Amino acid sequence: MEHPTPAPASTVAIGTGPVSFDELIAVTRHGAGVTLTDEARTAIDKARAVVEQLALAPTPAYGISTGFGALATRHIPTDMRAQLQKSLVRSHAAGSGPEVEREVTRGLMLLRLSTLATGHTGIRLETAQLLADLLTHQITPVVHEFGSLGCSGDLAPLSHCALALMGEGDVRDKSGTLMPAAEALADAGLTPVEFEAKEGLALINGTDGMLSMLVMAISDLRMLLKTADIAAAMSVEGQLGTDRVFAAELQAIRPHPGQAASAANLTALLHDSGVVASHRGDDCNRVQDAYSLRCSPQVHGGARDTVEYAASVAGRELASAVDNPVVLAEEGRVESNGNFHGAPVAYVLDFLAIVAADVASISERRTDRFLDKARSHGLNPFLAHDPGVDSGHMIAQYTQAAIVSELKRLANPASVDSIPSSAMQEDHVSMGWSAARKLRKSVDGLTRVVAIEVLTAARALDMRRPLEPSPATSAVVRRLREAGIEGPGPDRHLSPEIETAVQLVASGAVLDAAVSVIGELA
User: Fold this and answer.
1) pLDDT tens across 39-50, in order?
2) Which of 273, 328, 348, 505 could join 310 in a cystine, given CB atoms 3.0 to 4.6 angstroms apart?
3) Is 291 a catalytic residue?
């Protein structure tokens, strides 16, 4: 789902070091502007001097005085090199399909600018500055869903961004209005650039799209996995489960850090629960809870550890300068390399789609237990007000099941599906962009599944009264009711309530409600 973009609240300084996760989120989702540091400006100028020197040399240099890809053997005369760069961008801006989200395009632009600022690409300072200006003025090029194979970088998406620097193609202004790039630049008082040697190539040869989508997905999943712990706690409580299985000494026997964190969250969330206390005595005949309740920390924890592994990969990629050829300014040379291959990023994008599918799967199973009279321990069938007349949350679980089934399909890896291109010069590609696009759908699906579990568990907890839920889960139920989601009663139009719950989960409001009572979750 697209995140709302308020007016810029900050400015991010781009230097020669990596952009942080928080800085990327500030620019992509909160409209922060960007500036280039003096250090970055010096590095850019230094690398540019190397490119200009090589451009004058009689020896061909790839990307400076030659063609590209399978056409790299052709030497380009000096008077044709500016045209070479323009032609490169125009021909590679070949995307098709729906327009991608604004935050994705801003991520493309930001991370390309970050690489330019390292002093390894040979861009001119004025070109890098114009890219920064587009971000600051919130001018967003139109980028399409299809076009990147995730090798030689996200070529087509980045080319659409580079096209806007030339004053060509379509963009959206700050208000979201679609217009020609030349018009938007003029309105902002900006002047298009005329690309010189290597500049077109430097602007399009990176893993920036897949990487920015990875960072945003990690940010979302970190929040969603804490919210999944809240949903699980509400389900354990509402289904008269035990919190004893989450004890720290039991988790220590299998010392996965994510598992320990998730179990600690469940213990904190269920603390002082009147519902749990009501069946804690010696007369309780419950031996073991179902796996979907008892094993929540193991599943959520494994997901957490996978997300953190992905974050370590993303951190290394953020610290990289991805371009080909790359400028080694200190040595005064330009060298071809394979650092543009998106495999490291593509793999973890696929890993996270698996994580999203499985966490959603266990969430759906917990939800289903509420609705089955044989397993819900005294609750009305389907949590219906008048079963038979009313259907309660029967079809809400259908919606969950449909989403989970889709998430399982999205968990099929894109990174194993290489397809050759460029007359077999580029004969193995990462498909990282495709992996990133499907992960965004997976994160959205997980959000919806967890929201339906929260919605259903809240209804069940109300139906358990006069037993009192824990302070933390009570706060979540109150937050839902404050948002207009009514408690148990005769059937009503359920879709709007589901969408409200989805927004409360996606915005972090459900997490905030619990945290406001018990403090930060692990």
Assistant:
1) 999 999 999 999
2) 348
3) no
